Amino acid sequence: MTVRLIATDLDGTLLDGAVVDGSGTVTARTRQALDAARAAGIHTVPVTARQPIGLRPIAEQAGFTEWALCGNGAYGVHLTTGEQLFAEELPAAVQQRLAAALHTALPELRFASVQDAGERFVAQEGYAALAQYADHKRRPETMGAASLTEVLSAPSLKLVIRHPSLPIPEIYAAVQSSGVDGFAATMSGAPFVEVMAEGVSKATGLAQVCARLGVDRSEVIAFGDALNDLEMLQWAGHGVAMANALEVVKDAADEVGPANTDDGVARVIERMLGR
Length: 275
Fold this sequence. Notes:
Elements: E1 5-8, H1 10-14, H2 28-39, E2 43-46, H3 52-62, E3 67-70, E4 75-78, E5 84-87, H4 92-103, E6 110-115, E7 120-123, H5 133-136, H6 148-151, E8 158-162, H7 168-176, E9 183-186, E10 193-197, H8 202-213, E11 220-224, H9 230-235, E12 238-242, H10 247-252, E13 255-257, H11 264-273
Parallel strand pairs: 1-2, 1-11, 11-12, 12-13
Antiparallel strand pairs: 3-4, 4-5, 6-7, 6-8, 8-10, 9-10
Helix pairs in contact: 2-11
């Protein structure tokens, strides 16, 4: 396999288990492997559920300077020039129908909307009380307290849904069985469900970046661990699930590599480069 592009998830995949400011870190071995790949002419692309505010410090650690995918593939941005490649928004009408359908069964749900290339975060009153800095790389006291009407009034790059006590898979099941269509929902391992525009996934976003770079999917190796990585691993020429990945993700991958806490991404890149 000729590899021209490495696409990697961050949390639970590229980042190790050490926690600094609510986030894992890029180890020296991982940075060296990424640098070696770039020196060999291979593009390295972070593909994450995070917004740019949460990606920037990791990009600096990892040396990412090209295209990046945020919001589970909802939008692509160039980390050096700031150019926006695309943005797929969830229509306001769809999110309003979804919230209405969920309200009767789960009245304590709280919503937040990611807008304006990920720079604007509109949180419903009561959302901040459920959040920690690590959730969005934003301090809860800065999130504000908007009415639900305001949260849902504008299109979202990602709509976030959480509950004070229900397990995330139960919320996800409720969203999927809501009877509303026109959206895509997933889980990233964060304490909320993430809803994007219909058809959006890390795979669809990565396809657009590859088209821009002239890279065929057969030349892509992708790394991931969570449900929101599944489509990307299936789409790529070679999908690698981490040893700590969900079983459904491992089943979808071409290979199961070492865990993120064992420099799994670095080890696979090193092998690929013959190092």
